[in-house]
Amino acid sequence: MFAPTLRRYAAPGFWKKTSERFAQQARVAINLEGLTLPIKPYPMLDFADPETSTWMKTMTDKQVGGISTAEVQHVPANVSTNPHTPAHMLFQGNISTKLPENRLDVLRTGYAAWRNQDLGNTLFGELFWNVDSYMYLALRVKSDGRKYFVNIQTDSIVDTDIHQHRLYTKHHAGAEGPSDPGRWETVLVKLHEFVRTNHGLVTEPQSEMLRQKVKTVGIGLTDRTPGPFKLGIAGIWATNLNERGQVDGRTGWQDCDTGSARLPEVTEEKLAQKAEERRLLPKEEKSFRDIMPQFARSGKEPSSTKD
What we know:
By secondary structure, the chain is an alpha+beta fold. It is built from five helices and 15 strands. The strands form three sheets. The chain has a seven-stranded antiparallel sheet with strand order 2-5-14-9-10-12-13, with no helix packed on it. A hairpin with a 2-residue loop joins strand 12 (195-198) and strand 13 (201-202). The protein starts with a helix and ends in a 16-residue tail after the last helix.
């Protein structure tokens, strides 16, 4: 039964074709000049659509007998304000740290959170967001300055694992004085900086987030400070554009630089113009070591002059 296989291996030119195919694959693996990153944002949650807010679910300490409250509601755009208020989802409520009298096992309360419901299923299986090609999670928010956390759940082995990162804001209410109402801002969080937790505790050993299979995204408040809270969220998306509107972070950023344009200014026309400018540039052959200097040989380079 091995005869057909042996005849194929012994056929004229088999090993030559095989070696050429492996050589071609090696050239593709090493030739990294053509690798680029997505420039267009990858939308995940757009709260300009009123239907999006109805797709969110809230969680509070009421599940263990607490009395904290939370709700989400859609707020339409308001063009009469300066600057204009975008359409957004308002996450608001009240935090209470009072312990339930009939639950002696509950030693801690005072939290609230929201997240999207499951994305659903198709004939091919469960739906996920795939953010593996992106460096940042971007959030357009207006914060009251409390300590919120961004939560990401993936299709991991442990269902209760949550990847978390603090939502740091610069222009929240009170940032520039007691009378400062705060303003809208875009917060960028590096995806590789999320920390895996379970029931609020950091888990060890840490493992990289499964970016290809993101199930839910949400925001939680666990500072256990009694009182009202209010957070506006206009949208959440994945992106490779940094604060300057430039692509950075991985191989190929040299070929994708969009200049100093900020995210809202990156249009299809400008991207096409930038691509045409790159196309007209003189071709410059780059070596593997020029593109990936971290793989360069260590030590002193041999001299090219003869004694």
